[in-house]
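Kindly review this record before class:
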Amino acid sequence: MAESTTVDIESQQAELDTYHDEPGDRPVLRARFEHNGSPRYMLYTIKRLGLDHEHGFHLDVQLVSDSLEGGVETVEAKLQEGDADLIDIDYISTARERADGAPIVAIHPYGRTVGGLVTPEDSPIEDLTDLRGRRIGVVRRLDKNWILVRAACRERHGFDPDEEATPVEAGSKVELTRMLRDGEVEGVLQFWPIVPEITETGPYREVLPMAELVQDLSETDRKLPISTFLTSEQYLSENPDAVRGFKGAYRDAVDRLTSDDELWEDIGERLMYEDDPEIVRAVRDGWREMVVADWDAETIDGMDRLFDHLLEVAGADALGVDHVPDDMFRLEV
């Protein structure tokens, strides 16, 4: 891990640790989230406002690397190895891991956490049709953003960029940004909170937000969550009150983050790599547009339709799984 990244993780962790009081007799929920992922804003809000104790549980937050371990993201590895009780990943990855036998379940939506296609300002890439013959950086080939791009290109434009472009796996979001800035790739599919950090501080532009592809491919106007919060079947069985408490604390945090601009100024100062007012506002507005506070059966139906559509268009090889396992989504806890 690069030294600057280590410092960033330690600095943010110190801010969170300021609010890590004793759990008392409350059940502990060990949350492990990426140091550059947007859930950290919500986790910080819960800890700063004491919403975990208010809802009867103790949230223990540790930020981790966004690199891969054994082909899966670090947070996934920690949950499956018993080192975490709460993470967030996209539901396609959840389906892939659960179909392979991982005892993990989705307990609540997070949001439409996709990214954007970012290129240098003078790039000839203007839309998806321009990806032919280009080197495009991705965190990994099974990343949801690349899956969405493959599905959209195959359905709308009659080609598969996995075959007619050159996807270059970076292994982490940090490395993905470096590859773009060093000119090793002609564009990247970067996670949405990092896009403003790139476009506001350098000669780069966002060609296409992946959120547009989500809505087009799902054929619905309803905002669908792509990422959900996960826990293990064992933790859910043994600590249902803690999971219910988290869901309540999350909803309260969403209420504050969607209405309190001063809170975002504090988050920008303490948790963001670029404490620039324009970047903070861009991330704030993007978070508010992305987040999903709750879900119901209609939401799950929409997520199933999107999965089926991606499967039909992109195929099981692109998704890494051919079905959403039964009982993966737990609406009622």
